[in-house]
Amino acid sequence: MRFLLIFSFFFISFINNNANATNYENIPAFREVIWGITHPFIVLKVKRLTKRSMIVTDSLGKDKILFDKSGGNLDAFKHSYWMASLSQNIKEKKARKIGIIHEKVNYRQYKRALRKGKCVQDSTASLMDLKNNDVGILIGLENKKIQESELIKLVIFAVESGKLFIVSKDEKGNYLDCNGEIIINTECRWNKGRCLMKSGGR
Q1: Helix 2-18 × helix 30-38 angle, to 10°
Q2: How confident is the model at residue 39, as a pLDDT?
Q3: What predicted TM-score, i.e. pTM, was given to this entire model?
Q4: According to DSSP H, which parts of the chain are helical?
Q5: Per-residue pLDDT tens digits for 142-169
Q6: CB-based contacts of 79: which residues, under 8 Å, 6+ apart?
Q7: Which of 21, 64, 88, 144 could be joined to 140 by an S-S link, Cβ 3.0–4.6 Å?
Q8: Cβ proximity of 166 and 197 under 8 Å
Q9: Distance of CA 63 to the CA centre of its chain
Q10: Which residues, other chains included, contact 54 with Cβ-Cβ below 8 Å and sequence gap of 6+?
Q11: Residue 162 · residue 200 · CB < 8 Å
């Protein structure tokens, strides 16, 4: 039992590190604990791959290869590359489940933050992540044997060629609805009316 709890702790750490965690987001969720307990032998691999995907994403941002880690091209890369690297190394079903758990945790974090008067996450950001996860999984499955550098290039190409999804913004960074109108209402809601668009546009 101690062995299983140790490994579940590693998974909890992974899922919280992968989110843009703040203090109120660092409380483990039931789903995280259960996943960690039921998948003890791949938790360390998942944690290692997740940490590496964050390092790669940060590097691309610092090198100004991709921009905007909040709903933009860099954010799209982060999720797609994460899933691509996971699906290269673990079963597709497990990789997909990890992505789904992550989004469910995001909704839990939204509800907790809302009680504190903070706005984090929304339905559009969650949908964006899930769509980009799907593309990343496909890239990973179709390119099981390629090196990390080649996988990075493939996901960057997916971003630049409009195969991923980002949240629609204007040149000033204002969020837009699907009619191209600036969203004025900043009320903390799960459905804020933000719109997705193809990646590579900014």
Answers
A1: 130
A2: 75
A3: 0.84
A4: 2-18, 30-38, 43-62, 73-89, 92-115, 123-142, 148-160
A5: 999 999 999 999 999 999 999 999 999 9
A6: 99, 128, 129, 132, 133, 136
A7: 88
A8: yes
A9: 20
A10: 17, 18, 78
A11: yes
